[in-house]
Design brief:
This protein starts with about 25 loop residues before the first helix and ends in a 13-residue tail after the last strand. The chain is α+β, with helices and mostly antiparallel strands. Helix 5 runs parallel beside helix 7. The chain contains seven helices and eight strands. The protein is about 25% helix and about 25% strand. The longest helix has 27 residues, at about 60-85. The protein folds into two domains: about 15-60 and about 125-285, S-adenosylmethionine decarboxylase, CATH 3.60.90; about 75-120, no CATH class.
Length: about 300
């Protein structure tokens, strides 16, 4: 992974490509000579530091459990209300007073009145996949590749004790974008978050083609940084040259401009590497109100 420098190099600086740490799948493909210039061949990586405090707290177990508890009780009340509406109001013989249908069941269920909530399941109090799913939904990460657009998408998320989050998603291409008679391409995305204030960090990586649904890579980056609100971040985009050469370079110019203009941030650096059949572009950004901070481990 490329780590954003503490002091960005001058604009247009050169970097020795042999020292780049490319994504494992990309590096293996280059070594084997198996990568090709298809429209779907791209890898996007966003590395973020100095996350906003209100964002970081969402990746703590105590906070996520409290959110899960509220959601659980709301859903329980909603279910009881719907059940009561479906059953209708039952009246006692020779009386006009209605009674609670949840109080008039067998003794095994007598305690489940409309004023009593069911206990919170243990998996919503401890680290694991259940709370990971809650965080995925409440932070907006599930909206990166929503099931409304990617109906076959599968996300496996995990929340750690006392904090920390990891998610891996398998994203088959939408049926509308596949060629008749061929199986849809399957891609991935992965997210990792370390929320501690002193060294908050989040990473996002994907090879889902942004243009499959009419988006570009800049749209994805904007959505990611809007979720995490980092003080600074870097973007590495590795893609086949054919993507950059469409429409006699007009598409390339539009893509470059879009990526350079990320709302709320200023681009501090851009480095382009010309590889065999591919381009790798590294960019580094800082939030407009970023005032810096104490040096991190390994920084001057």
């Amino acid at each position: 992974m490329l780590t954003p420098p503490a002091t960005p190099p001058e604009m247009g600086g050169e970097t020795d490509t042999k020292h780049l740490d490319l994504p494992a799948s990309t590096a293996a493909g280059l070594a084997a000579g198996t990568l090709n210039n298809s429209d779907e061949d791209e890898t996007l990586e966003v590395l973020m530091t100095d996350l906003a405090p209100d964002v970081s707290k969402q990746y703590y177990l105590d906070h996520a459990s409290a959110v899960a508890e509220g959601r659980h009780f709301q859903e329980a009340r909603r279910a009881r209300k719907q059940a009561a509406q479906a059953l209708g109001t039952i009246e006692e013989d020779n009386a006009t007073a209605a009674f609670d249908v949840f109080e008039q069941t067998s003794s095994d269920h007598a305690s489940l009145t409309s004023d009593t909530d069911e206990p919170l399941p243990i998996d919503l109090k401890t680290e694991g996949h259940a709370l990971g799913t809650v965080v995925t939904e409440t932070t907006g990460l599930s909206g990166l590749y929503p099931v409304s657009d990617y109906p076959e998408a599968k996300i496996d998320a995990y929340l750690f004790t006392p904090c920390g989050y990891s998610a891996n998603g398998v994203i088959p291409a939408p049926p509308s974008t596949t060629v008749d008679g061929t199986a849809p391409s399957t891609h991935y995305f992965t997210v990792h978050v370390t929320p501690e204030t002193a060294y908050s960090y989040a990473s996002f990586e994907t090879n889902v083609p942004a243009k499959a649904l009419g988006r570009n890579s800049a749209d994805v980056v904007q959505q990611v940084v809007d979720i995490f609100k980092p003080g600074r971040f870097s973007v590495t985009l590795f893609e086949a040259k054919c993507d950059l050469m469409m429409d006699n370079g007009i598409t390339a110019a539009r893509q470059t401009h879009a990526m350079d203009v990320i709302k709320g941030y200023r681009r501090m650096d851009r480095i382009v590497h010309d590889l065999e059949g591919y381009d790798l572009v590294f960019r580094y950004y800082e939030r407009h109100d970023w005032a810096g901070g104490e040096p991190r481990f390994g920084e001057p």
